[in-house]
Write a structure and sequence with these properties.
By secondary structure, the chain is mainly α. The chain has one domain. Helices cover 74% and strands 0% of the residues. It contains 4 helices and no strands. Helix 1 runs antiparallel to helix 2 and helix 1 runs parallel beside helix 3.
């Protein structure tokens, strides 16, 4: 089940992908940087522990993984416990 925090993390990760794929288009990069910063602000204000170690938010925020890659990392951690 996707929670509001998970949805926002997913959108935050998508914005990071857009920035990384901007290939020098400054306006495009600026737009998506603003979107990313907005999602980051909402996450920090509404879900203070959204990026705690071992969560999808942690891997998206600290390692700039895609949302799917972050989910995979989290599932790997869970299966090793």
């Amino acid at each position: 089940m996707i929670t509001n925090a998970e949805y926002l993390i997913q959108k935050y990760a998508e914005a990071i992908e857009k920035i990384n794929n901007s290939q020098g288009d400054r306006d495009y990069r600026t737009y998506w940087s603003g979107v990313k910063n907005t999602y980051h602000s909402i996450l920090c204000d509404s879900f203070p522990e959204w990026a705690k170690p071992g969560t999808t938010g942690y891997f998206v925020f600290n390692h700039e993984l895609t949302y799917d890659e972050a989910l995979h990392k989290v599932s790997q951690l869970i299966t090793t416990i």
